[in-house]
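for the record, two folds in this file. i put them one after another cuz i was lazy. first one right below, seq on top, structure tokens after. the second one comes after a little note so u can tell where it starts
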Amino acid sequence: MINREQEEENDELYEHYCFVATNGQEPLRVDKFLMNFIENATRNKIQQAIVAGSVLVNDNIVKANHKVKPNDVVRVVLAHPPKESVLEPEDIPIDIVYEDDEVIVVNKPAGMVVHPGHGNQNGTLVNGLLHHIENLPKNSNERPGLVHRIDKDTSGLLVIAKTEFAMAHLSKQFFDRTTERLYYAIVWGNLEEDTGTIEGNIGRSLNNRLQMSVFPNGEFGKRAITHYKVLERLTYVTLVQCKLETGRTHQIRAHFKHIGHTLFNDERYGGDKILKGTTFTKYKQFVENCFKVLPRQALHAKTLGFTHPKTGEFLQFNSELPNDMVECLNKWRTYSENSKHEIVQ
């Protein structure tokens, strides 16, 4: 069975170990440091992991001779989960937009993880779905009901398969790119064109394995295409609509960083810094207030369309922008209006 969700997630990394060096830590090679903490680990295995780029110190790939210092965070991340975990049903509120015998469409809030993984064994959307429905079909990644996913801090619409037939049918739609997916994002800067297309292979960053990078020459990564349309220009940020032609991990986040318009308050990609604007203290405080009302990347999966597995009807669902994005936009609208007024005066 073709599974789009599997294709989207095959660059996903799982944290196997995480250690924080104490205040009294003497400088020590990272391979020796890990030997002291990982039970039954050989130095050869640890060095292999380091060469593969699977050992991070403060989220940066390091070499074996890197010296660990006080308060450094040392992590080992691999492409497979540390172990199979038992999925437990949990009575978690789920915003169900639509449901019938074949599918469920849900509106996921920001902050909710879609499926269990290391550090998030419970409280996920899948845990809540298993409480709502006893026998969800598993995809090729053994994840109940999932045919696609969105990041933890991205809000918006997801379709869940309730039957094996729906799983196969929806997975093929995602693979064939016949679904409709529109996202709204707030990005730093003022885009030159009202509409555009971002193309460039996306793959794991060679410098920071927590990020995805764009490789325009096509040597690395997988083909990725994002179409965008400017909806509103607000001086130093822009509200854009994004239409996905492909569905790669962090596609919108990586593509917009690549063209110099990182998503607003996207911590992982550097959008939590002031990237456009003035140096005035008043402006800095304004942006900090915007970060507080929107404490995550400004990205929402607003529209989802697909062909119903049984009826053949094309269904389209729309969701309202969540309150945190609305509040942030309103602050920028007020700022923009005041800026125009000051220029006129």
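(here's the note) second protein begins now
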Amino acid sequence: MDASYNEATQSWETAAGKYIIAFGANVEDIRATAPYSLSKQHTVKCHDVMKPNMPL
């Protein structure tokens, strides 16, 4: 799955679409794959516990 981080909303965002999920011991040892369909955009808000409290 492909996700992008949106700094403005402090969220991970994934676009709707068809994806292939890969399962394996590591990236060079994929043991199974499965199709996955996301019907709408998915957004996960991040916790800001590590956010600096002043500009860097």
